[in-house]
Amino acid sequence: MTGWGRPEFTASAGTRVHAAVLGPADAPDLVCVHGWGCSHRYFGPLARRLSGRFRVVAVDLPGFGSTLGPAEPLDVRGLSTALGDWMRATGRGGAALVGNSAGCQVIADLAVHSPELLGPVVLSGPSVDRRARSYPRQFGRILVDMRWERVGLTRLLVRDYLRCGPRRLRATARFLLADPVERKLGHIRTPAVVVRGSRDTIVPRAWTRECTALLPQGYSAEIPGAGHILNYSAPAELARITCSLLDRTGSEDR
Amino acid sequence: MSGMRQHARAARLLTDFDSSVNMVRALGRFLRGRDHRAMSAGPASPLLAGALAALPHTARRDLFEAMGFLQAVPLDRVSRLDGDELAHWATRQYRGERYPAVVLGAASGAAVHLAAALRAPFLPQTLLVGARDTATDPDDPVGAMRAVAPTARRIAQRNPELAVYHMHDPAQDRPMLQNLAYLRLKRLRLGRIHERFLEQRLAPGAPIILLDCTRTWRTREVGERAYFQFGCLGGLPEEEYHHSGERVAEYLRQQGSPWRHWDPPEPDARRPEAEWGFDPALESDVAWFAERFGHPVHRITVAEPQDLSPVVADLYRWWYRRRGLPGDRLLAESYVQFDPMWALRLGAVPFWLRFNMEPAYEALRDYLHATERFRDIHVNLFSQGLWSPGVVPVDRWRALAAEQAAGAGEVLGVDEDAYPLDAGSSLRYTPAFRSLPPRHSLPPPLSIEDIDEFRAQTSTMHAVDWS
After folding, report:
1. B256 φψ region: left (φ > 0), alpha (ψ -120 to 50), beta (else)
2. Contacts of A172 in chain B (CB under 8 A)
3. Sequence ranges of the domains in chain A
4. What's the whole-number mean pLDDT along residues B279-288?
5. Distance (Å, rounded) from C-alpha A174 to C-alpha A168?
6. Which residues of B touch A71 (CB under 8 A)?
7. Are B112 and B26 in contact (CB under 8 A)?
């Protein structure tokens, strides 16, 4: 029913990290990093489209999805350290990374302290727009965006949010809003693509343009008619863009 | 809510009279446009100060001891402390959006004025936590070491980012030692809280000023990253703590101690001095952070904490003159009774005295001899609650000020009869500074380039290494 393969559990980052896996064992790894309050679950549609070519691994960061987190919610550095620990523990250093929304912040922070772990990077809907770092603006934008998302996403997200709990959600939101991601993007030295849905209200075009300009090897792509959660609502197009990035870099031969 | 509770909890762990705590509080408040009255721990009141100073001798002595008791934290709480709580406390004192610079490292009252000039926050390497300890005798250092070592080890074990120094000084901290053990925690790693603060709140390209004080002291290891230090910088030379002679015997007799000399544990190495010394272990993290985020690092190295005072005083004088102010009023502040806001509002040149002891007196004397004459000289003195060996009496301070000032030289905000048991001292210094005449508006901040310009223009040799 979930559409994923056998789950993977790894002792790392001071907890038992859960990752959902889909794709042949001998295919190159592609690591998905979820956004605020989410989990591996909303990567399902994208994973199904990519699983012919990759072994898609969607990790639950500590405190989210099926990975237990510490009592004190982690800040961005805490999350990226956990991601790094887990990548090392599973031997996935250098794998391609796909982040959605706040997942992009975690990847950018990982690049600051552990750049060697990064393969090619897909930043889909990178948050948080520098000009709108406040709760009312973000929540307003999220509400408007839900119009452009596929049916079923709301139910899935609500389940993830409940699982993560209001306290962690609030604390994580505070850390994400304060995170100066624009100071970190320059550390992603691997090839990277910034993707946005043309109707994404959370991530305006001016912001993705700014992000792209900060990436040493970055370019941008836009998916017409799509909103913020491209991995769920526009998986085919995002899969195409991901493949074309990896074709360019030839990272499959790794 | 939980944030505020957490904040109050961390503040409760720290000690109100600690040098670093006061630096952080003074600057946090200065950057919000406020002064450092009563060590930022309560309201200032000359009236209450007068009443406290008028109490009989024994009552005042008891008051100092009671202060120590109130500042002490129960042992079980201390051994559970988390270094991040303390880091969090420090960063939360600064509420600004973007700072043009940051000062980081060793404690120094002169650095408060340097940071204030730059509008920079200060992040301390060392913080003091007072553990409740009523059982040990101040003059029995071995007993004190043994009693506190398990706690020191426990903290070090739980906090791999910290080194723990149990500092025991029966000469200067005697009344406090009746009830508390001094645990000075030195940060060896920048840590995620400080990193996050710098990432988010330091303006792009803003300089990081690393304050390095190379002063060391003989210490004894009691566990991994846990040390015991007997004595500290003050009126007695280090040697006298370890091989005490007639002066210490006389002091112990006066204090009614059954001991006639001190017998500290055999030291095994020289390590950074517990309160003022800088442990260079922190440096690599700072360099790493600066490199990753594109901040230049400026390093100021001094051999003694006091060495920064002349250069900061000269910087202020130069700055005032550039603004067309006379800069002919010197305000000598002692220990934590500094006020960056009032120094600037008065147009006064701040000269920080590390304490009220002979070495501080000599530093002020040497500075006044070497520099261009000031018209007015005001000296304020901290009271530690007893006549420690080496305390310089008020009349000598006054004589120095009077003799060196072209106009008036005086001791300011000190109850001369009560000193150095002037229990109202901390409530009095800010009102005393405030009572001085001129008023100026706060100037725009200096930049690091301004400081370079000052250094290029000044011909005075300062015992400070900038790089």
Report:
1. left
2. none
3. 8-248
4. 97
5. 10
6. none
7. yes
Categorize the per-residue pLDDT at B247 as very low, low, confident or very high, splitting at 50, 70 and 90: very high
Q: Where do the structural domains in chain B lie, given as residue ranges?
A: 2-51+64-302, 309-445
Q: Residue A36's pLDDT is what?
A: 96
Min Cα distance A225 → chain B (Å) is 34
**Helix residue ranges, H only, A148-223:** 153-164, 166-178, 205-214
Cβ distance A75 to B292 less than 8 Å, yes or no, reads no
Question: How high is the ipTM of this complex?
Answer: 0.84
Among the listed residues A47, A34, A46, the one whose alpha carbon sits nearest the alpha carbon of residue A172:
A34
CA distance B202 to B100: 6
Per-residue model confidence (pLDDT) at position B11: 76
Query: Which pLDDT does position B2 carry in this prediction?
Result: 52
Instruction: Assess A130–B contact: CB distance below 8 Å, yes or no.
Output: no
Structure confidence at residue A1 (pLDDT): 43
Percent of chain B past pLDDT 70, that is, above it, reads 99
Minimum Cα–Cα distance from A112: chain B residue: B292
Angle at A161 between CA A159 and CA A166, to 5 degrees: 135
Whether residue B1 is predicted with pLDDT greater than 60 in this model: the reply is: no
Contacts of B292 in chain A (CB under 8 A): 112-113, 187
**Residues in A touching B195 (Cβ below 8 Å):** 77
Alpha helices of B358-418 — where are they, by DSSP H? 358-370, 394-404
Q: Residue B132: pLDDT above 70?
A: yes
Which of the four pLDDT bands, split at 50, 70 and 90, describes residue B135?
confident
Pick the CATH number of A8-248 from 3.40.50.1820, 3.40.50.720, 3.40.50.300, 3.30.70.20: 3.40.50.1820
Q: What is the mean pLDDT of chain B?
A: 94
Burial of B27 (0-12, 13-18, 19+ CB in 10 A): buried
Contact B140, B101 (CB under 8 A): no
Query: Which residues in chain A have their CB less than 8 angstroms from residue B289's CB?
Result: none
Provide the token pair at B36: 């450092």
CB proximity A77 to B under 8 Å = yes
Residues of chain A with pLDDT under 70: 1-2, 251-254
B219-to-B125, B127, B129, B228 alpha-carbon distances in Å:
19, 18, 19, 6
Six-digit token pair at B220?
Answer: 């004894």
What does the block give as tokens for B403? 């003799």
- B195, B204, B293 member nearest A77 (Cβ): B195
- The residues in B 292-311 lying below 8 A from A, measured between CB atoms, are 292-293
Q: Which two tokens stand for residue B17?
A: 């009279």
pLDDT-derived band at B380 (thresholds 50, 70, 90) equals very high
Which residues sit opposite B334 in a β-bridge? Answer: B353
**Preferred mutation among B200, B201, B284 to probe A, highest tally of A CBs within 10 A:** B200
Gap between the Cα atoms of B36 and B17, Å rounded: 13
Kindly state the greatest CA–CA separation across chain B: 59
The predicted pLDDT at position B460 comes to 84
pTM over the 0.90 mark: yes
pLDDT above 90: percentage of residues in chain B: 85
Q: Is the pLDDT of residue B233 over 90?
A: yes
Task: Name the region of B39 (left: φ>0; alpha: ψ -120 to 50; beta: rest).
Answer: left
Residue-wise pLDDT for B178-231, tens only, equals 889 999 999 999 999 999 999 999 999 999 999 999 999 999 999 999 999 999
Q: What is the distance, to the nearest Å, from the Cα of residue A120 to the centroid of all Cα atoms in its chain?
A: 13
Closest partner residue to B196 (CB to CB) among A77, A184, A187 is A77
CA–CA separation, B46 vs B84, rounded Å?
37
**Three-state DSSP state, A17:** strand
**Nearest residue to B61 (alpha-carbon basis) of B322, B276, B383, B328:** B383
Structure tokens at B258: 């059954």
**Residue B284 to chain A, least CA–CA distance (Å):** 14
